[in-house]
Specification:
The chain has about 350 residues and is α/β, with parallel strands linked by helices. It contains eleven helices and 14 strands. The chain binds adenosine-5'-triphosphate (ATP).
């Protein structure tokens, strides 16, 4: 189990004439990823998804908050002592082209981490080659074909499978898949998503899926949890299917309204939420982060920041949380014709 409480990250960007400026990438994010669970973080570009994934994988520091892995708060450990914990979280890079060293064969790519793993777990070195073959077979590629080859000799889809196999060398509990299919050919995407789903079922490995695309979040974690991030804040959280069917936050509703309708098969939902153009000047200070774009915002939204709250109170049957003063369910998703 991996949990985060109040995860906050502020980047200092060197500005032009105005000097350095602080960019809050994450504003007190709470999350929990259970073993074998599927959690998706969704949000538009700049919402803080990648930063959060990197923090969870131990590749980025945070300014406030706590990450707890298997009951151990990471802040209580030295940098060195944290490493075995962060080994349990492996990041799958979105770009399979730059993620693999072009000068190494796939055999060499897998051999190095497997040797380390053999040492850590007291196995013989002879275990390494067999394990490399096993992992490649597990991700659906022929070891005999792939092992002697260099990355440039493989398709994007195959490379992404090798990247996943490499992540599995460390026996992770959680795979962080950051836009894992965005850079590979559309025709190969479903195969990679199906593989991640399969690994969840077969190995019980948890998947943290980071995406701007609600359809992929739905595919990978239809039984999981969805977190909707907007400008570093979780604005809605709950069971993926529930949020997709019944979004409450206007930002989530606007994301779902943007899903294209399949002509002849679907018709648009009864309502559509279209965000207003963002005005650069006068960004809300202290108010709801979405207020200036929200078609339903009121004076209160401009001056007070809503916090994530539970629907129906503690113990409510469905646990859906949202940060909005004017929650209203709107049926925005396309519905099948004849339903
Ligand atoms: N190394 C960095 N230095 C300064 N600012 C950064 C850095 N990394 C991210 N940011 C800023 O932090 C905010 C969140 O970025 P992040 O990449 O986490 O968002 P994202 O939701 O993953 O976006 P995308 O989908 O475009 O990758 C953005 O405003 C970004 O400009």
């Amino acid at each position: 189990m991996i949990t985060g409480t109040g995860i906050t990250k502020i980047f200092k960007q060197r500005g032009g004439v105005l000097g350095a400026r602080e960019v809050p990438a994450l504003r007190g994010v709470d999350f929990a990823i259970a073993k074998g669970g599927a959690v998706s973080f969704i949000g538009e570009s700049g919402s803080g998804k990648t930063t959060l994934g990197r923090i969870i994988a131990g590749l980025e520091t945070h300014d406030a908050g706590e990450i707890v892995i298997d009951g151990v708060p990471m802040s209580s450990l030295s940098h060195r002592a944290r490493q075995p914990y962060f080994r349990r979280v492996q990041l799958i890079h979105q770009d399979p082209y730059s993620a693999l060293n072009p000068t190494r064969t796939i055999h060499q790519t897998l051999e190095a981490p497997l040797r380390l793993r053999a040492k850590q777990t007291g196995r013989l070195r002879s275990w390494v080659d067999g394990r490399a073959e096993e992992l490649l077979a597990m991700v659906g590629i022929d070891p005999g074909y792939v092992l002697p080859r260099y990355p440039h000799q493989l398709s994007g889809g195959m490379r992404q499978r090798v990247v996943i196999a490499r992540a599995l060398t460390m026996d992770p509990e959680v795979l962080v898949a950051d836009e894992a299919v965005s850079m590979i050919d559309v025709s190969l995407r479903l195969g990679i998503l199906a593989l991640l789903k399969d690994l969840r079922e077969r190995l019980g490995v948890g998947v943290l899926f980071i995406t701007h695309d609600i359809a992929t979040a739905r595919y990978i974690g239809d039984d999981g949890e969805l977190y909707v991030l907007y400008r570093g804040q979780v604005v809605e959280r709950g069971a993926t299917e529930k949020i997709i069917a019944d979004p409450v936050h206007p930002y989530t509703q606007s994301l779902l309204s943007a899903i294209p309708v399949l002509h002849g098969l679907e018709r648009p939902g009864a309502e559509r939420v279209v965000p207003r153009e963002m005005q650069r000047e006068g960004l809300p200070d202290g108010g709801c982060l979405f207020a200036r774009r929200c078609p339903f915002s009121t004076e209160r939204c401009e001056s007070e920041m809503p916090v994530l709250g539970r629907d129906g109170g503690p113990g409510a049957e469905t646990e859906q949380e949202y940060a909005c003063f004017h929650p209203e369910r709107r049926s925005v998703i396309p519905v099948g014709v004849g339903e």
